[in-house]
Amino acid sequence: DAGVIQSPRHEVTEMGQEVTLRCKPISGHNSLFWYRQTMMRGLELLIYFNNNVPIDDSGMPEDRFSAKMPNASFSTLKIQPSEPRDSAVYFCASSLQESSYEQYFGPGTRLTVT
Amino acid sequence: KNQVEQSPQSLIILEGKNCTLQCNYTVSPFSNLRWYKQDTGRGPVSLTIMTFSENTKSNGRYTATLDADTKQSSLHITASQLSDSASYICVVGYNNNDMRFGAGTRLTVKP
């Protein structure tokens, strides 16, 4: 069975450029989560969706960050313009339902902004 | 203030030995507590999930305990293997869907 799929796995970009990270959740899962992980701050929840609707985006650091989920099988996290402090590993996770405690994480996208 | 603190920050043990990782939290109202294992370069993988009414849960050689009164949890690893080398993250859920993450414990198992 395919797990959560993220692309790209690695992204290197220059400051000021737009970055788009992609996620395909596990088929049948209704909730999708975007996380950021850094050495300094650990894992942080950025935003989560339930049935394609954003429920809580209080973790989104700034207006430069935006996330969409146009359908049940696809989500994007966009950073525009990117800054060096955005360098981190970005994880997408999905779960069967909003109240499900079991989340399945993707392999992550390692973003480096120079 | 809702906090999750893990200890130790890092740990080195010999293969075959047991170890215990700690997680203390102050989040309220408590909903659930999860332990994740994260291998280097991979996403976290769920080990155990406990709700308020559960005080112990096992997953193979991993056993998690929860004391909701003292707001403490531990993850015990029995007969460690080299593949147990990873970061172990404690996540505490509160309110409806809020979460707080611990900084993790980095475990290294040496032959």
Question: What's the structural blueprint in terms of helices and strands?
Answer:
The complex is a heterodimer of chains A (114) and B (111).
Chain A: E1 5-7, E2 10-13, E3 19-24, E4 31-38, E5 42-50, E6 53-56, E7 65-71, E8 74-79, E9 88-95, E10 104-105, E11 109-113
Chain B: E1 4-7, E2 10-14, E3 19-25, E4 30-38, E5 45-51, E6 56-59, E7 62-67, E8 72-77, E9 86-94, E10 98-101, E11 105-110
Parallel strand pairs in B: 2-11
Antiparallel strand pairs in B: 1-3, 3-8, 4-5, 4-9, 6-7, 7-8, 9-10, 9-11
Main features:
heterodimer; A: 114 residues; mainly beta; 7-stranded mixed β-sheet; 4-stranded antiparallel β-sheet; 0% helix; 54% strand; B: 111 residues; 6-stranded mixed β-sheet; 5-stranded antiparallel β-sheet; 60% strand; globular
Protein described:
The complex is a heterodimer of chains A (114) and B (111). Helix content of chain A is 0%, strand content 54%. By secondary structure, chain A is an all-beta fold. In chain A, strands 2, 4, 5, 6, 9, 10 and 11 form a seven-stranded mixed β-sheet that branches. A four-stranded antiparallel β-sheet of chain A has the order 1-3-8-7, with no helix packed on it. The mean pLDDT of chain B is 94. The termini of chain B are far apart. Chain B contains no helices and eleven strands. Helices cover 0% and strands 60% of the residues of chain B. Chain B has strands at residues 4-7, 10-14, 19-25, 30-38, 45-51, 56-59, 62-67, 72-77, 86-94, 98-101, 105-110. Chain B has 111 residues and is mostly beta strands. In chain B, the strands form two sheets. In chain B, strands 2, 4, 5, 9, 10 and 11 form a six-stranded mixed β-sheet that branches. The interface between A and B is medium-sized, with 20 and 21 residues.
